[in-house]
Amino acid sequence: MKGASQLAPLGIRIPDELKARIQERAQQNGRSMNAEILDIIEKSFSLDANQQVEIFNDKINHLTRVNDLKDQIIESMTGTISSQKETISALESSVGSQQEHMEILRGHIDFLKSILDKK
Fold it and tell me: In sequence order, what are the residues at sequence separation of 6 or more whose Cβ sits closer than 8 angstroms to the Cβ of residue 35?
């Protein structure tokens, strides 16, 4: 920053959580914490109320679209889950039938064994 030595230092107390957020944001923007804080302060003075309302409306619109997409995904997944439940039910029925057939076959095997054992 040009002329940094000519700027008056300002000591402020910042909660650790806020400081961490500023550090993270500064890192994301490739700036020092000081430069990031100055940018945040400058922006807070440069935005008028109408601009701030527009920014909030944009955020609300974005979140509404995200929420709508979530609802669409849930609706789609509900149909898929219903179909999967039907498939599971059909498979359980099939497994039950196969188990019954196995029991009948075991009975035949036991019967044949008993005949062979008598001979």
Answer: 1, 26
Residues 6+ apart with CB under 8 A from 39: 29, 31
Check: pTM over 0.70? Answer yes or no: no
Given a cut of 90, is residue 92 above it in pLDDT?
yes
CB-neighbour burial class of residue 56 (10 A; exposed 0-12, middle 13-18, buried 19+): exposed
Q: Is 37 helix (H, G, I), strand (E, B) or coil?
A: helix
Measured CA to CA in angstroms, residue 68 lies from 63, 82, 85, 101, 112 at distances of: 9, 21, 26, 50, 66
Q: Counting runs of H as helices and runs of E as strands, what totals does the chain give?
A: 3, 0
The dihedral built from the CA positions of residue 97, 98, 100 and 105, taken in this order, carries a sign that is positive
Q: Based on C-alpha coordinates, what's the Rg of the chain? A: 36
